[in-house]
Amino acid sequence: MKISREDVLKVAALANLELSDAEVDTYRGHLDDILTYIDKLNEVDTAGVEPLTQVVAASAGDSTLRDDVIERCDVINEVLEGAPDPDAPYFRVPRVIEK
Amino acid sequence: MSAPAAWTIPEVRSALDARKISARELVKDFYTRIEQRNAELNIFLALSPERAYAQADRIDAAIAAGDALPLLAGVPIAVKDVISTHRIPTTCGSRILAGYKPPYDATAVTRLERAGAVILGKTNCDEFAMGSSNENSAYGPVRNPVAPGHVPGGSSGGSAAAIAANFAVASLGTDTGGSVRQPGSFCGVPALNPSYGRVSRYGLIAYASSLDRIGPFAHTVRDAAEIMSVIAGRDPMDSTSASVPVPDYAASLGKSLHGLRIGIPDDYFGEGIDPEVRQKIEAGIALLEKLGCRRVSIRMPNTEYAIAAYYIIATAEASSNLARYDGVRYGPRVPGGTLIEMYQKTRGRGFGAEVKRRIVLGTYVLSAGYYDAYYLKGQKVRALIARDFREAFEQVDAIVTPTSPVPAFRLGERTANPLQMYLADIYTVTGSLAGVPGISVPCGKTAAGLPVGLQVYGPAFGEDRVLQIAHGFEHAGGATL
Question: In total, how many domains does chain A have?
Answer without folding.
Answer: 1
